[in-house]
Amino acid sequence: MPVSKSVGARIKRREDPRLIQGLAHYVDDIKLPNLLHVAILRSPYAHARINGINTDAAQNLSGVKSVVTGDDVKDVIGGIPCAATDPEGFPGIKVPHHPVLATGKVRFVGEPVAAVAATDAYIAQDALDLIEVDYEPLDAINSAEAAFADGAPIIHEDWDDNMAFTWSIAGGDVDAAFAEADHVVSQRIDHQRLVPNPMETRGVVAQYLPGKDQLNLWSSTQIPHLLRTQISVMLSMAENHVRVIAPEVGGGFGCKLNVYAEEALLGHMAKYLGQPVKWIEGRRENFLHTIHGRDQTGDVELAVKDDGTILGLRYTVSADVGAYYQLLTPAIPTLTGLMLCGSYTFKNVQMNLKAAFTNKMATDAYRGAGRPEATYLIERMIDVVAHDLDLDPLEVRRKNFIGKDAFPYETGTAVAYDSGDYTAALDKALKIADYDALREQQAELREEGRYLGIGFSTYVEICGMGPSAAMPAGGWESSTVRVDPTGKVTVLTGVSPHGQGQETTFAQLIADGLGVDIDDIRIIHGDTDTVQYGIGTFGSRATAVGGTAMVHAMGKVKDKVINIAAHLLESNPQDIVIEDDKYCVRGAPESGLTLGEIAMVAHVGVELPEGTEPGLAESHFFEPPNFTYPFGTHIAVVEVDADTGEVEIQRYIAVDDCGNIINPLIVEGQVHGGIAQGVGQALYEEAIYDESGQMITGSFMDYALPKAHNFPRFELANTVTPSPVNPMGVKGVGEAGTIGSTPAIANAVIDALKPFGVRHIDLPLRPEKLWKLMQET
Amino acid sequence: MKLSGTHTIGATVERTFELLIDPEVLARCMPGCDKLEHRDDGVYDMAVSAGIGPVRGKYTGRVTLSDIQPPERYTMVVDIKGTTGFVKGQGVVELAPEGEHTQITFEGDVQIGGPIAAVGQRMHASAARLMTRQLFGAIDKEARASEG
Q: Which site among B81, B83, B88, B122 would you substitute to test the A interface, given the most A Cβ atoms closer than 10 Å to its Cβ?
């Protein structure tokens, strides 16, 4: 997209002044009269029967308004929904009832058991200590392997095993590929469990207005409209009497793309107590009871020819999905399946997945959601192939790349990559890295007993979710563009930004499109009483799908504005152009009209052309014809300290192609954060449950997040291959950094340890693990 | 979590054994012990205050001694819980003469659950070692005081 006045410019985020001055309103900033504070009692056991709950002492504590247990709400609050349970997609899927408060049994540590509403948060917390629960502990399951073992305890007793569902995908002729192969390269690959950790934890405020029979629900969510629908079903309320508001949301990374127990529970409590209620999730609660990501372990086999040509891939994998499903739990590994071929030409591919119920929190969408697994797997395996066949990992990539003339390209998994030029991104990254010099430096340092490693990731991912046909709950998006009589523009978008900067990028598109100052544009989102139904923000879709809906709505407004301008200027619509933010007849800018002048005419309604509706507002619902497929090359340069095993990232080069760029500053910000989270998975993060099902990494003291000092200054660049899927040619960039960086770092560290004969190491690559490997050889 | 260790007590095996099963001595010597009462036949009611990092709390429950073979060994089962979690464990304590003194060897398995399990897990073993060292150190002092 050419740089015009706004689009393509490095405009600072319009959101930031309020955020950095503490002027933003998050859920916890919502203050209502007579507000009660809710605290949740959570199971300390991974698996136990509940033989009784005594709430008397808690009820009697001064300041406590109400204590509710599972038995109190089981008939009035429906189960927590899952939108991906179609037995045609998931043969044999078991869909357990998922209560908001446990009844009869608890199935993971952190599962809600009771809730207290009190006049302040401290009393509510103290009252939890007075609730006596008679638990009868049962044996717990902490891995898929343990769940499938003979004689394993049964988590959901409606069935006689812990198999949650199976899923498979196949393309081409895998058996023939393996028969033809010179080598079969195999490796077990583990994708450890991760905690999304947004800066703002979850939180809910609920208020019931009896005169209107209306429930107002503020929640830190990515999907206000989908949440409204689900809450209305769970609470048996008419959907048009439920209003969900996502105020300022401090990050989500997928974990707020969900419907949680507390959202329905607080809605119910506000209604029956006749007082508003608030619950703000503590960080330790967040570790236990906000969805986790990843947790797949599988065996990969690649059929390869002597020259490194890949003929086919088999992936047999177990997913540990936790005790219950959350909104999209079963759908996540299917995205892994779709992207298994990566940037490469082989079409013979097969993935067989078995998912297990275990005594853990549910897994669901975490930044990348299924695609980081695919990318890590194939990018890691390319390096394993290079290792086994003594080839350059770079050459293996080039040999197998899909050529730039092959697009649109249908993969072995039957998805159609929209556009791409993988070699161009790789070449650009190599040039920035000065690759040959790096290899020379690596050889010199090895002589000195220093271990430099260079790692690649030439990823492709799937974004702009997506066509509704491929989504569990709608893949379209909506927008309304309104021009007020004074010419101020209001956009109502169905997406729900929580850090992605659409209040800026959407305004840039409107400013250029309608010829209006960016400061005169307001982007409204996240309030279901204000904004038409929308799907929300996830899967790098907000700009590619939501932005497109807005551009179409804006186009309708613009057509009308031009018609009115032509009428007023006694000209033809096709002769009207925008010059200096004025609608004028081509060549006569001095008699031009501003958007405000035309908008006033539209609202006064007297001088309109015959047959023109008064007012100036248009809506559009956009259904994308396909996903988008951003790609790029990431190169990590690391040094592993031989004495301590510590990894220092010396350089990080990322060349991302997310199609046309509306605001480079925001794209860079998304890539920075994405790289940091992907590096977290590669080097530091791991959610661990012990054998008794206790989560033993439940605080920032125990779960390592990367910090600023762990990173060098990123070296970022782009190639631009516009997407044909939407008129802006954008692809999405919210997840690229996360998807690209994990394998780049892993490959770099393993490359560094090549002199020690290392072929593969499971993540995270902590110093103790690396140090031990170096000591063993 | 596996727990094991040895400690030397400055008293005879017989005297050490007496001290180890005396609720008053144990209540004095056990770090954070608020209460320890012998209920019946090897069963003690216990209340302790303990904490790791930011998670501090009171725990109540029961300690049961069984398979008591004075002055050589006994089996101990601990089952306490509180608002910040629970601790369950069992172990064997063995006493052997070491000259005039006694060497205590213990070996056990402890399960920790609830909020305390999620925080500071890597410190649990060292915290447990510290607490046992404090316990046996205090008993050693009692023993030497009563000897002297």
A: B83
